[in-house]
Write a structure and sequence with these properties.
- With 59 residues, the protein is mainly α.
- Helix content is 66%, strand content 12%.
- The chain is built from 2 helices and 2 strands; from the N terminus they run αββα.
Length: 59
């Protein structure tokens, strides 16, 4: 029974962390979209991970 409770607790924690990360992503995207300059965020492998609306409008 404890094992199941621990798994449920861990799953709920992961869901909460995912929801927080998604909310932070939406907030960051909103901030990026208010900036009029073209912005793109890239990761360490030079892969584009996020852009703002002016970037999308041009490309």
């Amino acid at each position: 029974m404890r094992n199941v409770a621990k798994q449920i607790s861990t799953s709920l924690d992961k869901i909460k962390l995912y929801e927080q990360a998604e909310e932070n992503r939406r907030l960051n995207q909103g901030i990026l979209n208010t900036i009029q300059e073209i912005i793109q965020l890239i990761d360490q492998e030079r892969k584009v991970i996020q852009v703002n609306q002016p970037f999308c409008d041009i490309f």
